[in-house]
Amino acid sequence: MYFFNIGTPLGIIRVWYDDQGLQFLYFYEGEKGRKVPPFLSGGEYKIWPSLYQALKDYFYGGREIDFQGFPLNLDRYTPFTREVLTFAQKHIPYRRVTSYGSLAKALGRGKAARAAGRALASNPLPVIIPCHRIVKAEGLLGGYSQGRDIKRELLKIEKVKFNLVGRVNNEVFISW
DNA sequence: TCACGGTCCAACG
DNA sequence: CGTTGGACCGTGA
Asked: For A57-69, what is each residue's pLDDT tens digit?
């Protein structure tokens, strides 16, 4: 396993990967004492240049960066969870959002909204798998495993606007 | 099995 | 509008 760090306005990010693809991304320092998962240690420091550049552009460049092309290693997940995660990576572009229910529907499981939320809650690759772009059906923010503040900030970076009642405008909303 | 979510929506007031 | 209660479904223990 390899890893590298990169500073962002939201704290230091650490990314883990191997020859199969990306495995983990987490906020390493910053936000109230979040810890390094203990199962990750002893990796070899090695930058993945294109990914490094993409992250840098995303956080500092204010440019439309998508991570859709980067390979993921999601072997340890169940098929449904994998589907949810890969679908999110491939079909929810920059500055667009959708809901848990809509995403479930797109996978042919119209009623599995909560299950989809559960799958996203175990997203090992926030930012790269853009689970911050999935909000509640009525456009309210919804939850986020890294903390709702981070979710808000990420959407802010992408210039997704919320109205006074706290809902995203439906221009950016995708429904399947 | 079972309890638990990053939910949803119809039915209120 | 805002709130509430029940239905829903894949997971991990």
From this structure: 999 988 999 899 9
Residue A39 has pLDDT above 60, yes or no: no
- C-alpha A63/C-alpha A39 separation (Å) is 34
Question: In this structure, is the CB of residue A95 within 7 Å of any atom belonging to strand C?
Answer: no
Residues 37-96 of A with CB under 7 A from strand B: none
Overall pTM surpassing 0.90 (yes/no):
yes
Could you list the active site residues of A?
A: 131
Positions on chain C within 7 A of a protein C-beta: 1-2, 7-12
State how far Cα A41 lies from the chain centre. Answer: 22
Residue A118 in this model has a pLDDT that exceeds 60: yes
